[in-house]
Design brief:
2 copies of one chain form a homodimer.
Chain A (H helix, E strand, L loop, with lengths): L6 E4 L18 E6 L15 E7 L9 E2 L8 E2 L12 E12 L2 E5 L7 E8 L21
Antiparallel strand pairs in A: 1-2, 1-8, 2-7, 3-6, 3-8, 4-5, 6-7
Chain lengths: 144, 144
C-alpha cells in the first residue's frame, strides 16, 4: 500500500525540539499548501471551523513498541501514546481553519515540523466523536 | 512512502451497503486483531476508554475530488467529506474499548467493513481536541 503527499505543511517549527506536543498547546499559525492537482477537493472546507490533518512524520525513522512519552517518566505501550516512531508514521492533528485562499489553507494550532508531508484532510465534526465519559489512562493527572 | 497493516479489523459488516456511516451511529461490536509482532505496543491502552483507529479503505479504488456525500444531495469538495475514495485511502474512527486480551481489542462503535487493514491506533484524548465553538459547514442541519 502506497501513500503520496497531497501537500506540504508550512509551520514556524524547524525541529522536533521547537514543536509543541499537541494543538491545544499551540497558538502557532501555519500555512497548508495543497498541490494544485487536488485544489478542487478543498471546496466547501471553509464552512468548517476545524479540520483534521493527517500527515507523515517525515523526520522519524523506525519504531519502538515501548516509548517514554514527553509527559511521563515511565515506558508505555506505543499505541497508548502519540509518539512519532510508529510502524506507520502517521500523525493526526486538529487545527482551526482561519482562511482558504485557492490551494492554501491558513490555520491555527499547528504542531508539526515545517515541511511535513500532508496525506489527507477531513472535516472535524464533534457529532462523530464519542459522547460518553472518557478515560485517559496514564495521562490522567498529567494533563487534567 | 509505504505503509503496512499492523492488524485486521473484524466487524459484522460484509459490504459497504451494510456499514453505518460513523461510529456514534453504530453500536456494533468488533474485534481488532493486532499482529503478534506489535502486541507489546498495546500495553497501557486498556486505561483509555476510547481509541482512534486509522485504517485503509481497502475496498475503494481511485479518488474523486467532488463527491456526493450520503447525507447530502449536492457535490462537495472531497476534503470537506469523509468519503473513502481519497488520494490516500486513509480512514479514521473513534471506538470504545471494551477489553484487551493479549493481541485482541474488543471494541464498540465499529463502522468499517470486515477485513479492513489497520494502520495505527492512537489514544483518544479530549484535551487534544478543540474547545472553541465548532462550525460544521454543509453538515449543519443534517446531523445537528
Amino acid at each position: 500500500m502506497k501513500i503520496r503527499p497531497i501537500g506540504i505543511i508550512h509551520s514556524p517549527f524547524k525541529s522536533k525540539e521547537d514543536t509543541p506536543i499537541q494543538p491545544p498547546r499551540s497558538q502557532a499559525t501555519g500555512k497548508i499548501e495543497i498541490f494544485r492537482e487536488y485544489e478542487e477537493g478543498l471546496d466547501d472546507v471553509d464552512g468548517f471551523s476545524h479540520l483534521i490533518l493527517i500527515y507523515w512524520f517525515h523526520k522519524s525513522q523506525g519504531y519502538s513498541l515501548k516509548v517514554k512519552p514527553f509527559l511521563d517518566t515511565q515506558l508505555r505501550g506505543l499505541f497508548a501514546t502519540r509518539a512519532p516512531r510508529r510502524p506507520n508514521q502517521i500523525g493526526l492533528s486538529v487545527v482551526r481553519l482561519l482562511e482558504r485562499k485557492e490551494n492554501i489553507l491558513y490555520v491555527r494550532g499547528i504542531d508539526v515540523i515545517d515541511g511535513t508531508p500532508l496525506l489527507d484532510i477531513k472535516p472535524y465534526v464533534p457529532e462523530f466523536e464519542p459522547e460518553e465519559e472518557i478515560k485517559i489512562g496514564w495521562l490522567e493527572g498529567k494533563i487534567r
